[in-house]
Amino acid sequence: MLKIASSKKGGGGGFGVKKSGDAQVAFIGFPSVGKSSLLNLLTGGNTNSKVASYDFTTLQAIPGMMVIEDARIQLIDLPGIILGAAAGKGRGKEIIGAARNADLILILIAFQYDGSIDFDHLFQIRKELFDAGIRLNQKPPRIQIKTQTRGGIGFTYNGEQIMDKDEVKSLMNELGYSNAAVYFFEPNVTPDQLIDYVLGNRKYISEFVVINKSDLEQHTYTDKEISEIIGHRNWIKISALNEDHIDDLRHQIFLQLHLIRVYLKPPGEEADMEEPIILKEGDTIQKLCEKLHKTFLKNYRYALIWGPSAKHPGQKFNTMEHVLEDGDVVSIYLKR
Ligand SMILES: Nc1nc2c(ncn2[C@@H]2O[C@H](COP(=O)(O)OP(=O)(O)OP(=O)(O)O)[C@@H](O)[C@H]2O)c(=O)[nH]1
Ligand SMILES: [Mg+2]
């Protein structure tokens, strides 16, 4: 079996948590919602993050590893967030730094003793993350800007748009551009999206909402009402105390990460169907090579692929741009 250490770049931002595993999930929530209790449960006792009934029990980032369907997922328990975190209150900068590096943000809220759910916390956390440049459940806008030396602001677009040419022009001027060609490749681009694109440095990450302490539930809300308040259906009710719906949550985390399994077949040998390489949906042969070792990137000659992404078994790919799919078997041939 080919065993090569992952060559992932970067140490990870907030709190200096070293990225490890196939994907990273950050836990964000107000104090005492049960983040540490949940981390301990999901990692099956591998991790021991202190749990206590008082607020601010966790003071640093505590990473743990959860293995699910062959993927190793790093979970990061964080201190309780407080208002103003984006502006640096509490250990807000570090908490948000850790969130920015994650592939999925798990926002934890909880049932209260009166059976209500602290939805306000969810909205406040979303605002903190927004202020810190994190865009939850959004895709990067399909925009292109080409700066030019003259000609003012040009505007080309697809579909119906909210902004007209004058509005685009004045916003671009405010953003410091006097000559540029602006392209919107999708309909209804908002001014915020244009600003995000120009400012760069935005992170687009999915959120999943965990409502903990369901042992305190008094059936005040229907599922439909909860979905309406949250704004989507990516949420789950659990009880860390009673270990209720923990396996469902594990599975949901796996699904939300959109991971794919790719099997390696060393040239001339049988494929290794035991230990897949875990990649993300949309990843290319290049990503696979990066994950294996830098020599694969440098000395890549071609790949043969069997499986869902191949038009026929053993299809040959001379470049690394081909997008892989879950279940592909890949042979990589290197230059000698
Ligand atoms: N009733 C109930 N209590 C829970 C549940 N999960 C956690 N708790 C309790 O809630 C309190 C806080 O739990 P922690 O896991 O320390 O919460 P935390 O979010 O990590 O808190 P900080 O680190 O302070 O931000 C503890 O007393 C837990 O026993 C649950 O599902 N139901
Ligand atoms: Mg904690």
Indicate the low-confidence ranges by residue numbers: 1-13
Reported for the largest beta sheet, the result is: 7 strands, mixed
How many E-type strands? 15
For the record, what CATH class of the largest domain applies?
A: Alpha Beta
Second-tier CATH architecture of the largest domain: 3-Layer(aba) Sandwich
Bound ligands, each once:
guanosine-5'-triphosphate, magnesium ion
Number of domains: 3
Oligomer: single chain
Helix-strand pattern, N to C? EHEEHEHEEEHEHEHEHEEHHEEE
* Tally of separate helices: 9
**CATH topology descriptor of the largest domain:** Rossmann fold
Q: What structural category characterises the helix and strand content?
A: alpha/beta
Write the CATH homologous superfamily of the largest domain.
P-loop containing nucleotide triphosphate hydrolases
Average pLDDT reading: 89
Reconstruct the topology from this structure.
Layout (H helix, E strand, L loop, with lengths): L22 E7 L5 H8 L19 E7 L2 E7 L14 H9 L3 E7 L8 H13 L2 E3 L6 E5 L5 E5 L7 H10 L5 E5 L6 H9 L3 E10 L10 H8 L4 E3 L8 H11 L2 E6 L12 E4 L4 H8 L1 H5 L1 E7 L8 E3 L11 E6 L2
Parallel strand pairs: 1-3, 1-4, 4-9, 5-9, 7-8, 9-10, 11-15
Antiparallel strand pairs: 2-3, 6-8, 11-12, 13-14, 13-15
Bound molecules: guanosine-5'-triphosphate and magnesium ion (MG).
The site of guanosine-5'-triphosphate has 24 residues, from α1.
